[in-house]
Amino acid sequence: MVAKDKTHIWFGLGAASIVIIGAITVMRLKSKPKVDLSKFDSPDIQGSGRCMDKEFIKMLQKLTKVTNLPIFNMINSGARSAYWNRKVGGVSNSSHKIPKCQAADIKTPTKSIRNKIVIAAKLVGFKRIGVGKTFVHLDNDKSKKQYVAWGYPSGTKPPINPFV
């Protein structure tokens, strides 16, 4: 009879462990919302947003938390084919271009939202920030100069520079 009691104890511990592990897994899945990478698609290549750099996406998720803004719904431009990059006047070594996929332009409807994104971007670790009147360019391309901000049109002083 003692052996039977021990079997029930082990069975109970095993079941409790499964429930606890399941609960932890569900909590982790809920805390990491899936990102709709199609928002980063080059307009001429469906599905191209899947190339986006994973570290870059994580940084944008942090930016979303810090700013409390729907950053992923504010994407103007993400991945770009060579054709699309030329069409929009992007530089030849653009970090947007496939297969690099390490940049995005974020719509900023107001100056205060633009400035909030720029300041928060530096806080979450972005070291390359382009600042336009109606958008902010962010990239994490380590092959390029770091801790820089620039304005648009290219070569102009940024209206806000978090690195000075």
Describe what you observe in this structure.
The protein is an alpha+beta fold and 164 residues long. It folds into two domains: 1-32; 37-151, Muramoyl-pentapeptide Carboxypeptidase, domain 2 (2-Layer Sandwich), CATH 3.30.1380. The chain contains four helices and five strands. It has a five-stranded mixed beta sheet with strand order 1-2-4-3-5, with helices on one face. A hairpin with a 3-residue loop joins strand 3 and strand 4. Helix 2 (54-67) crosses helix 4 (111-124). The model has no long low-confidence stretch (mean pLDDT 91).
Question: What layout of secondary structure does this protein have?
Answer:
Blueprint: H1 2-31, H2 54-67, E1 75-77, H3 82-87, E2 103-107, H4 111-124, E3 128-131, E4 135-139, E5 148-151
Parallel strand pairs: 3-5
Antiparallel strand pairs: 1-2, 2-4, 3-4
Quick gist of this model?
The protein has 164 residues and is of the alpha+beta class. It is built from 4 helices and 5 strands.
For the structure shown, list the relevant keywords.
single chain; alpha+beta; elongated; 164 residues; Muramoyl-pentapeptide Carboxypeptidase, domain 2; five-stranded mixed sheet
CATH topology (level 3) name of the largest domain: Muramoyl-pentapeptide Carboxypeptidase, domain 2
**What percent of the residues sit in helical stretches (DSSP H or I)?**
25-40%
**What Rg do the Cα atoms give?**
22 Å
- What is the subunit arrangement here? single chain
CATH class of the largest domain: Alpha Beta
Structural class by secondary-structure content: alpha+beta
Total number of beta strands: 5
- The string of secondary-structure elements, in order, is HHEHEHEEE
Q: Regions with pLDDT < 50 over 5+ consecutive residues?
A: none
In total, how many domains does the architecture comprise? 2
Give the overall average pLDDT. Answer: 91
Shape: elongated
What percentage of the residues does DSSP assign to strands (E)? 5-15%
CATH architecture level-2 label of the largest domain: 2-Layer Sandwich
Order of neighbouring strands in the sheet with most strands: 1-2-4-3-5
Q: Can you count the helices?
A: 4
- The termini sit apart by 76 Å
Major sheet: 5 strands, mixed
